[in-house]
Amino acid sequence: MTEESLQTAPETVDTAPVSVPVPDDYTGRIIRTIIAVVAGFFAGLVCFIFEGMATNTGGSGSGVFAILVLIAAIMIQKHIFMAMRLRYTLEKKDWFYQGFMTFSFWFVTWTILLSGTALKAA
Predict the structure, then answer these.
(1) Is residue 68 part of a domain?
(2) Does some domain include residue 17?
(3) Which runs of consecutive H residues, i.e. helices, occur in 25-91?
C-alpha cells in the first residue's frame, strides 16, 4: 500500500484588524454640513432682525447688508473648522458646497421670517 498524502488546508496568517478610518472622512463631512446649516440659519435670522429694524425706523432695506452677512457666514466657517480641529483645507468644490448650503438655509430662513407665517403661528 502506498501512502497518500493528505491535503491540508493552507495555514491562515493572522493579520492585524483593519484600522478604522479617521473620523474626518465621514463624520467630518456631516459636521461640516451641520455647521453650514446652522450658519445659514443664523445669517437669515440676523438679516431678518437688522433689516426689520432698518425698515421699521424708516431706513431702506437695500439688501447689501444681507449679502455681507451671508458672505461673513460662509467665511467664518473656516475658523469654526479650525477651532473644532476639522480639516479646513478644502477643495473649491467643497467650499462651493459649504457656500451653497449656507446660502440655501439663509434664503429659506429669511424668506419664512419675512413672510410672517412663522410669526402668526406662534
Answers:
(1) yes
(2) no
(3) 27-56, 64-83
Long-range contacts of 78-83 (CB under 8 A, 24+ apart): 80/35, 80/39, 81/32, 81/35
What type of residue is 95?
A: W
| pLDDT, tens digit (0-9, with 9 covering 90-100), for 15-33 | 766 665 555 567 888 888 9
In a domain, 14, yes or no: no
Q: Which residues contact 24 (CB under 8 A, 6 or more apart)?
A: 86, 87
Q: What pLDDT, on a 0 to 100 scale, did the predictor assign at position 24?
A: 52
Contact 107, 36 (CB under 8 A): no
- Could you tell me if residue 19 is inside a domain? no
Q: What is the pLDDT of residues 21-75, one digit of tens each?
A: 555 567 888 888 999 999 999 999 999 888 766 555 555 667 788 899 999 999 9
pLDDT at residue 51, as a whole number: 77
88 contact partners, CB below 8 Å, separation of at least 6: 78, 81, 82
Ramachandran sector of residue 17 (left: φ over 0; alpha: ψ -120 to 50; beta: rest): beta
- Domains in the chain, number: 1
Please give the residue range of the domain that contains residue 79: 34-117
